[in-house]
Specification:
49% of the residues lie in helices and 20% in strands. The chain has 203 residues and is α+β, with helices and mostly antiparallel strands. Helix 5 packs across helix 6 (154-168) and helix 5 packs across helix 7. The relative contact order is 0.09. Mean pLDDT is 80; it is low at 5-10.
Length: 203
């Protein structure tokens, strides 16, 4: 079944799996987690170099081929790339390998491990999207205040923010955040009353 034995892969976290590659015969061994990472039940497939390459994301295949060439020559390596599992799901992985030596000290292959960081990658992406959305909201709020104060269009309000950004060497989103903080609670009561009146009488 070409599966890494229990002594190598005991108590592995689900996101980490071990592998071995033997130069002689180009043989692979996968731990249970590496098999699952590729979308297979442990023991259901015999890993081969061709199979490993077939799961690499098309955009990363050339880079991974270069890594495999290092493996064939018993060189240590590390790589961060994408794989596409048997179910079509794209996963982000880090693969690290070290030389595997025989009894006489000769290089007989590579042993190492996969780290699946897809979930943390998605979290990072979500966080980045959230930050962008938050920044845009602050910029829109700042534009709205300038539009109301000066009776100008959204484009002109944004021009003012960009101008001040260049003058102060502060990014637009940070400038908008500081501007909103400065303006918080500064409107006089009669202004708020006018806003309330206008808002509630729209028909």
């Amino acid at each position: 079944m070409n599966q890494v034995d229990a002594s190598v892969g005991t108590a592995e976290p689900e996101s980490i799996g071990r592998f071995r590659f033997y130069i002689d015969g180009q043989r692979w061994e996968w731990s249970k987690n590496v098999a699952r990472l590729h979308g297979y039940e442990p023991g259901s497939v015999t890993p081969t170099t061709e199979l490993v390459l077939s799961h690499k994301h098309p955009e990363d295949r050339e880079k991974v081929a270069a890594v495999l060439d290092k493996m064939v020559h018993g060189e240590p390596f590390s790589s961060r790339h994408r794989i596409v599992d048997a179910n079509g799901r794209t996963r982000w992985v880090i693969v690290i390998g070290e030389r595997m030596l025989g009894e006489a000290g000769e290089v007989i292959g590579t042993s190492g491990f996969y780290v699946d960081y897809t979930d943390s990658m998605q979290t990072d992406v979500s966080a980045a999207v959230s930050k962008v959305a938050e920044a845009r909201a602050e910029i829109e709020q700042a534009k709205g205040l300038l539009m109301a104060a000066y009776g100008i269009s959204a484009d002109r309000a944004f021009d003012i923010l960009v101008w001040r950004s260049q003058e102060t060497n502060i990014k637009v989103r940070e400038l908008a955040r500081r501007f909103l903080a400065e303006m918080a609670g500064t409107f006089p009561a009669d202004t708020r009353s006018q806003v309330d009146h206008a808002l509630l009488n729209i028909s």
